[in-house]
Amino acid sequence: MIILRNITASVLANITVRVISFVTSLLLIRYLGTVGLGVYTTVLVFVGIFSTLSDFGLTTLMTREISKCRENPYKSSIYIGNFIILRIFLSCIALFLMIIMANYLNYSSLIKTGIYLLGIASIFGVIRGVYNVALNGYEEIHISSFLSVIYSLCSSLVVIIFIIFKMSVESLFFLIFFETFITSTIAGLIGVRYTTIPRFYLEKENLIGLLRNAVPFALLVVLNTIYFRIDVIMLSKMKGVEDVGIYSGGYKFIDFFLLLVCSIGGSFYPRLSFLFSKSPE
């Protein structure tokens, strides 16, 4: 029943988020035009690629580890605390690399401003990501699915405000910055309610062990992200942001139908990890 509930909640939330995102994308495409959309997409993809470095495969690893020890609140709180510390540390490194690479590629001041703002926002977003993992590990996927819909609605509200007040692309990046801060606060409050309060007890061996075990997952996530998203970065330098806007506008239709199967697979993963910890056979 738990798996069925999780699959149902995950699939419904995924479809809802996809529909909201699709409609929001159409509004943005019409309002921004090809150049504005190209700038917006370039920033999002650029930050997204480096965000996978800050994740370092820890999301998948921690889902497994928290699933195994969720019946031990103290141990799971230690894991969550260490996860937060590692993610913030790696996010700071990723932000530093973003700044260096954005200047090396000689992007316009508008694109660099967007990269800096969303790069800093990704550090706030660590809390959102951590408690999404914790909720999945506790098999409270219906809660994390509900939160994903809330995040999507908040993002849509940002776009609506942006369009109604006829703001600039730079203002859109500031709105996303504040939206990330607000949704991360919501995720932290709800996450603590349904999982546990993190304990920031540093264990050097544990941190090193987590990083070592995360390497295979990190390679999978980083290579997968580069494979699917490097095209936008290449196009932005080879042709320009206007062509990125045309390309990404068409890609939105493909993206709408993408990754639905992941919502099903993600529902099984915590349960399988938990059962394996109980009986490896």
Structure description:
- With 281 residues, the protein is an all-alpha fold.
- It is built from 9 helices and no strands.
Outline:
The chain is an all-alpha fold and 281 residues long. Helices cover 88% and strands 0% of the residues. The chain has nine helices and no strands.
Secondary structure layout:
Layout: H1 2-55, H2 58-69, H3 73-104, H4 109-137, H5 141-164, H6 169-194, H7 204-238, H8 241-256, H9 260-278
Helix pairs in contact: 1-3, 1-4, 1-5, 1-7, 1-8, 1-9, 2-3, 2-4, 2-9, 3-4, 4-5, 4-6, 5-6, 7-8
Proportion of beta-strand residues? under 5%
Q: How large is the count of helical segments?
A: 9
| Cα distance spanning the termini | 23 Å
| Percent range of helical residues | over 70%
Characterize the biggest β-sheet.
none
Instruction: List low-pLDDT spans.
Output: none
**Order of H and E elements:** HHHHHHHHH
Report the structural category: mainly alpha
Cα shape:
globular
